[in-house]
Structure formats: C-alpha cells, structure tokens
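We modelled the chain as a single entity of 370 amino acids. Its sequence is:
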Amino acid sequence: MTSASPTLGILGGGQLAQMLALAALPLGVQVVVLEPDPQAPARLCAEHIRAPYTDPAGLSRLAACDAVTLEFENVPVEALAALEGRVPVRPGGTLLARSKHRVREKEALRAAGARTAPFVPVEQGTDLEGALEQVGGRGILKTSELGYDGKGQARVSGAAELRQAWEALGRVPCVLEGLVPFEREVSLAVARNVAGEVAFGPLVENTHRAGILRTCVSPSGAPEGTGDRAREVAHAVAGAWGLEGLLTLEFFQLPGGELLVNEVAPRVHNSGHLTQDGGGVSQFEAQVRAVLGWPLSDWAPLHPTAMVNVVGTVDGRGPDWTAVDALPGARRHLYHKAPRPGRKLGHVNLVAPDVGTLRDRLVRLEALIP
C-alpha cells in the first residue's frame, strides 16, 4: 500500500464510480470523485467534488490522491493532461485517447495481434464511395467517438443507406464496420499493475436488447478453449498498450470458435457486474487493486452467476421487486438515478448452485424485469 489510508481519485461519479467506491471502502481506501452532476450516484459513498472535469481546484484535489482512475472514457483529454506528472493516472492518457476513438482503437488492436471485423474509416463524404464493398456489402456505421449503448450508430446495407446514415450522424468522423456471422458475444477483463503483474476476470456471455446489454452469464456457453484464447488476446493487448489498471474486451465468437475483438473499455464494464456476487473478488476490487499497485489475482464468481440490467422504460414500468426479491439467488443493485427511457437504473445478479438451475432462474428473472 502507498500509505496507511490510501486515497483513490476517480474522474466521473456515475454508477461505476459508485461501485468502485463501495469496493474500495472495505479495503481501507477512501475515494474522491470529480463529477459535475449534482445527483451523481457516487456522491452517496465518496467525497464528491461537484465541478467540471477540467476544473483546476477539482483536479488539484485529485492530484493529492495516491492514484487516479476513470469510470468512463469520455473524460476530456485536458483533464488527464492537467494531472500528468502530479499523480499516477491509471489507465493513462495515451491509452484513453486510443480507446475512446474507434478507428485508433481497432488499428492498435491489430497492431497488438488481435483480430477485428473488417473496417473502413469515414472521415469525409468521399470516403463513403466503395466503403461497403470493402467490408463485405453490409455493415454498421459508428461515430468514431462518444457513442455507447447503441447510440451513434446505424446498420446499412446499401450505398444510399450509408450516405443517409452518415448525414443523420452529423457528418462527423465515423468507422464503417463489416457485419460478421458470430455465434455469441463474450467479454473478458484484464488487470495489470505497475509491476506488470496480470490477472483476468471470467469469460462472460452477453446478450443485448435495443443496443443495450440485457443479460450476462458466467460460465459462458462458448466452446472449450475460448476462454484461453480470450486471455491470450487480452494479455497481448494489455502488454502492447502498457496497461496500468483494468481493461475490458468485448469479443464476437465466430462459428469456428475464432474471436474478433469488437470493442474495448479501459475500465470496469457492465458485463462484469456479476462478479459482485457468487463469491470471489469483484471486477471493482480488481480495478482498485491494479490502480493502487497492489498484488493481483484472477477474479470470477465461484458459482454460476448471471446479471440482468434494469433499464428505464417508455411507459415507466419497473421490475416486480417483490417477486425479484423472492427469487432464490437474486440480489439487486440500484444506482439511485432518476428513471428515463433507455437509462441504466440498476441490475440484478443471480446466483445458482449449477448451470441448469441458473438458466431456469434467469428465464424467471427476465420475465420480472421489463
């Protein structure tokens, strides 16, 4: 440990910062978050500096911490530049700049030896000509920056659709990704500390609804050996990128078992929330440990575990909490956020003694959550 009572600074104060703080507290670590939102979820369990991310006084408070991390990648690069040389920032600005820009991210993934879907950068209108043919005739146009949870993207299958999508996205820099025939989506997190020690989270199988993560299951249903291949890719990326902290990789698993990296997040990830329950270390504790330079070990639930996201609905309907709480193995985690359609409001983790029981309970749980 860096001190008798370490302090961890976090850029961002949303639900990920809240859960990072909740994991840090039992370790004797105090948490400070810099977040402009007065209703930031992390305010309930951490010191909350209500100020812009580039606020000099707020950044000075973070600079007084033992280390600083981030809960999302859309932090202004100016904020990290202001902290450089004053306090360890993990992951650092170079890695953040790479992971927040989809084209740079994919180029860096390939340079590290990872495979991705075919892609073409679209910086201006002339880049649209022949782009679809280069990625196989059908694809997804995504903004290079800022898009998440299905926002900032559109499926296209013709030249006219492609141009319309680019216009609708505001003619901003984009990447056109080819559609790939994947069997399942899986994710895996890797943590690496300043000493170069590496540890991994579980291989998690993910399903989406309306572009937003709906369910996660561990262990995944991927073929034998998939987890080992995912670790090899994650280890290579973590080393090539000089990771200090935690990184989550989302993969497409193809019918033959091959893995393509879809996206990378330089932080804890929604798909890793199930590590809070089922025994074992959580992804949040893993990030805290990696950022502070503490010893690392692999983390994964000790029992079959699943997660279902709770998302705001158009009609305002919420889960049947009485029935959810009565379901064996269910445990809710709410973020104290005002309901809004499409907004992540919480999640429910589900633990069972075996995979079959977990799958049965997951069907019941999904029926209780709109």
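As a brief sanity check on the tokenised model: The chain has a mean pLDDT of 94. The two ends are 44 Å apart (CA to CA).
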